[in-house]
Amino acid sequence: MFHCKKCGFPIRKKYYYSSGLCSRCYFEKIDKQVLSWEKKRTTIKQVETQSTSVIEKIVSILFGLISWGIFLLLLGGFFYFLIFGINLQSPVPDAQTLTENPKEIILNYTLDSQDHAFTGIAYKGVNDYLASLPREIFYRVFPPSEKDFLIRDLNNYTQREYLYPLVNAINALDIPNYKKVRVAVSLVQNIPYDWSGFNKNIRGNKYPYEVLYTNTGLCGEKSELLAYLLRELGYGVAIFEFKKENHQAVGIKCPLQGSYKNSGYCFIETTQPTKIGNSNESYVGVGQLTSTPSLIEISDGLSYDQIYGD
């Protein structure tokens, strides 16, 4: 006869379990173990469920953010198109096409009463590419300003690469900076006026590089070329637009007391050789300027302080 280790109940040998328990205590112990295992399994499942729930929430939040990002991007693109429109341009040809049919150009200028000239190469390929670009700026709500057209013409990346040699040649001259300004001014003033374009009433259609290549230009076209050169030389530049006379001239940043109509910019005519600051001549196709122009500022930079001479 044996006794249960837990309850002390007498039990026969055949009902005595190796654990020293009677059948009742033994199965109570088993039930407790089973319950413990079930609790552990339940806890593990809860942890797994919570982990899955957290992951699902994170994925849901990320998906929501991505969806909103795409939506806002599309919405922004829609409004950009609605307001500014899309400017379609011809694809830029490769370098071989751009440099087809090179020709020598001679650019004359006068400095200190002495005649000089730059000799360089201009490419028909570049000229033809620029000539193929649309002159319009397409829009949906707000029409482009005159400045928008000017900046587009001055900032053309392809043109910039092929105008650089001229800017570099002017910068390489061993003369003071203010004389480099005079070189650029004289160089543009000595490019012949485009009487053909004037008679056909084709105004302001050429990019600055086209003026160099064709060696002709109207007032607006030549003014853009000079504005480009002065900007690249580091000076503050603007355009004077005379709507009444349908004329444009360049303004270079200078002391207020010597500036044109107290604008902070000195007047430069580009259609004929005149001194910087002289606005009292009778100009090609225009006569004398009597109206007050609008000022279109292109860039800030150095001030031309030699308005009263050396």
Describe this structure in words.
The protein has 310 residues and is α+β, with helices and mostly antiparallel strands. The protein has two domains: 2-84; 95-135 and 157-299, C8orf32 fold, CATH 3.10.620. Helices cover 45% and strands 15% of the residues. It is built from nine helices and eight strands. It has helices at 23-84, 95-98, 124-132, 146-154, 157-171, 177-189, 195-199, 208-214, 219-232, and strands spanning 2-3, 10-11, 102-111, 114-123, 237-242, 247-253, 265-268, 294-299. The strands form three sheets. It has a four-stranded antiparallel β-sheet, covered by helices on one side. A two-stranded antiparallel sheet has the order 1-2. Helix 8 packs across helix 9. It is rod-shaped. The model has no long low-confidence stretch (mean pLDDT 85).
Helices and strands, with pairings:
Elements: E1 2-3, E2 10-11, H1 23-84, H2 95-98, E3 102-111, E4 114-123, H3 124-132, H4 146-154, H5 157-171, H6 177-189, H7 195-199, H8 208-214, H9 219-232, E5 237-242, E6 247-253, E7 265-268, E8 294-299
Antiparallel strand pairs: 1-2, 3-4, 5-6, 5-8, 6-7
Helix pairs in contact: 6-9, 8-9
List keywords for this structure.
2 domains; four-stranded antiparallel beta sheet; alpha+beta; C8orf32 fold; 9 helices; two-stranded antiparallel ribbon; single chain; about 300 residues
Characterize this entry briefly.
With 310 residues, the chain is of the alpha+beta class.
Strand arrangement, largest sheet? 7-6-5-8
Approximate shape: rod-shaped
**Strand-residue proportion:** 15-25%
What is the rounded Rg?
41 Å
Helix count from the secondary structure assignment:
9
Main beta sheet: strand number and arrangement?
4 strands, antiparallel
Overall pLDDT confidence: 85
Structural class: alpha+beta
Q: Ranges with pLDDT <50 over ≥5 residues?
A: none
Q: N- to C-terminal separation?
A: 133 Å
Would you give the CATH topology of the largest domain?
C8orf32 fold
